[in-house]
Amino acid sequence: MIYTVECSFADLDTEAEWNDFYSLEKLPALISVTGFHTSQRFKALNEGCPVYLAIHTIDGPDVLTGEEYRQKGGGNFAKWQQHIVDWHRNLYSDIGLAPAVKADELLALCANGPEPLFQMGLTPLAMQAVALEKFPERRWLAKLPRRNAHLVESSPGSVHLYSPMTEQLIGACAERTEQEK
After folding, report:
1. Is the pTM of this model over 0.85?
2. At 113, is the secondary structure helix, strand, or coil?
3. Smaller CB count within 10 Å for the chain: N or C?
């Protein structure tokens, strides 16, 4: 399943420190949790959505309620909580492993149907919200070569672009699955 966490951060003075914590400590801790397969973090390039997005591939909702998840940092933002705004979490139906977005690519997300992504020549993956906030109820995601970011200008507001802040981290479970193929 795909687990998304989205938020913005309201304190410019500590935002760089928070980003270091999230990217360098929190993501590696989460990917070590049994049931986490991939994790990657992004920053929005356009307005109308939370600034930060983390996308994880997990086994299912039980992973998020387990003791190992709580011990290794799930939901542990005490130091930063007062500055985290526009925070949303969703669990989407299984699409396989979340696509790894490389430095020369962008992640395109759309909640208004797949058509804008098809019009850009992309092949979107459909996701259906199944737990947590369940909003947006449906989403489509695709990878877009960074050089084609201008194509989104023809779909103002309906497609949000995200630049990767980290490489996709791969957990032990995903590594074993890839080796078996």
Report:
1. yes
2. coil
3. C
